[in-house]
Amino acid sequence: MAKRFEQTTGPSQRQQRVAELVRHALAEVLSRGDFQDDVLTKNVITIPEVRMSPDLKLATAYVMPLGGKDEDAVIRALEKNRKVLRQEVARRVNLKFAPDLRFRRDESFDEAARIDSLLRSERVARDTAKPATDISDDDSEQES
């Protein structure tokens, strides 16, 4: 009887490794600024994550311009220059197929800021504060 493997919920180790290679290649290409596009040359773009499809033919890059301004313009400029970016990634990453690139807005910074503001709110601080015990009452009971 054949062994059955349970489907893993996360990406494989190879997907993660290739995604990291693609992320580094994209970051290098974007940091060099060899584009005719004014939006890409005037903005510093961070790429915190790239996710690869299981067949390694599709890479979804989550991008955020530094400072969080002109997000839509940056995404449009990246989509417009997708062919050039794909060629540059193919040149830097040795794969059988150059992955198609998709660009999405990275929302992890917004989510982290939202969680941070929740943790700093007065309501949560009140719940997590240590209860104050009055030491003087305990000492007076023991002396009696």
From TrEMBL:
Q: What compartments host this protein?
A: Cytoplasm
Which HAMAP family does this one have? RbfA
- Kindly report the protein's main subcellular placement as a broad class: cytoplasm
Recorded GO cellular component terms are: cytosol
Q: Which GO terms describe its molecular function?
A: ribosomal small subunit binding
This protein is called Ribosome-binding factor A
Q: What does this protein do?
A: One of several proteins that assist in the late maturation steps of the functional core of the 30S ribosomal subunit. Associates with free 30S ribosomal subunits (but not with 30S subunits that are part of 70S ribosomes or polysomes). Required for efficient processing of 16S rRNA. May interact with the 5'-terminal helix region of 16S rRNA.
User: Which organism encodes this protein?
Assistant: Microvirga lotononidis
Subunit-level organization = Monomer. Binds 30S ribosomal subunits, but not 50S ribosomal subunits or 70S ribosomes.
PROSITE patterns recorded for this chain? RBFA (PS01319)
Coiled-coil stretches: none
Superkingdom per UniProt = Bacteria
